[in-house]
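Field guide to reading this record: the first block holds the primary sequence, the second block holds the structure written as discrete tokens, and the final block holds curator observations. Each block starts with its own label. This record concerns TnpV protein, catalogued under organism Bilifractor porci.

BLOCK 1 — SEQUENCE
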Amino acid sequence: MQNEIYDKKNGITYMLCGDYYLPELTLADTEPTYGKYGMLRKSYLQEHRKAKYQILLLQGKLVEHLNQIDIEARDREERLVKQMMEKQGITEKLKRQDNMEWARRMNTIYHDAEEMILAELIYMKG
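BLOCK 2 — STRUCTURE
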């Protein structure tokens, strides 16, 4: 019997261990650096896209995917907040004049931006 078999269909190499061929799996060296949005994406995949989650996990691309989603989401959030602040005329002057109004409006902006990001990147992306 051969010590090693390569399956062209799935791209996995199998090693002979005793009487059985076991897949030779290795973990990717990608460090999990994702934050809030990466964790939300992971939960979504685990609960609603189980096949995609398993594929990414077995291919060693899950952490890379979650890191990328988190980066995209944070960049998008920053741009959206800045655009909404400009559109609504929220400035440092308002912050100095009426801090409570500024905080209320900023909380609304952050909430709206997060809802957009969740819909666009976390729950709908492939």
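BLOCK 3 — OBSERVATIONS
DSSP finds five helices and three strands in the chain.
The chain has two domains: 1-30, 31-122.
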